[in-house]
Design a protein that fits this description.
By secondary structure, the chain is of the alpha/beta class. The protein has a single domain, classed as Rossmann fold, CATH 3.40.50. The chain contains four helices and five strands; from the N terminus they run E-H-H-E-H-E-E-E-H. It has a five-stranded mixed β-sheet, with helices on both faces. Helix 1 crosses helix 4 (115-126). The relative contact order is 0.19.
């Protein structure tokens, strides 16, 4: 499980997600991140360095498109993707459950509401279930 925090605006939410995921997954949070445009190549190198074959990604808004790009280019490396969006007006919901089997389940989740509820929806999705609607 790799967490790529886009900014520090939602520190409490990221901490809650980390706390909930740490009980179920090995969670990796890189200390320094590239620009969005360089993320796909950087992720490939990062995963190779870790010796990790397949991961799920939880990414902040600014890395959303780049993480999706990586997932589409390197389909064998990505299991699930969660993109945390700044508000419910931008996106919200799951994508991929009804797509072809080789597609990646994707959760677009607004970061509005109590941290515990948003984090619980992330964990539920990553563990194989679809999160309950808010």
């Amino acid at each position: 499980m790799i967490l790529l925090q886009g900014d520090d605006r939602h520190h409490a939410l990221w901490q809650e997600i980390l706390d909930q995921l740490a009980g179920c997954f090995r969670v990796i949070i890189p200390e320094s991140l590239p620009d969005e445009a360089d993320l796909p190549d950087w992720l490939r190198t990062f995963l190779d360095g870790l010796g990790t074959d397949r991961v799920s990604l939880v990414v902040g808004g600014r890395f959303g498109i780049a993480a999706l790009h990586f997932a589409l280019l390197d389909t064998d490396s990505v299991e699930r993707v969660v993109v945390l969006t700044p508000s419910e007006h931008e996106a919200g919901g799951t994508v991929g459950d009804s797509l072809q089997p080789e597609s990646h389940p994707l959760l677009l989740l607004p970061v509005e509401g109590p941290c515990e509820i948003v984090a619980a929806r992330v964990v539920t999705f990553l563990c194989g279930g679809a999160p309950a609607a808010s």
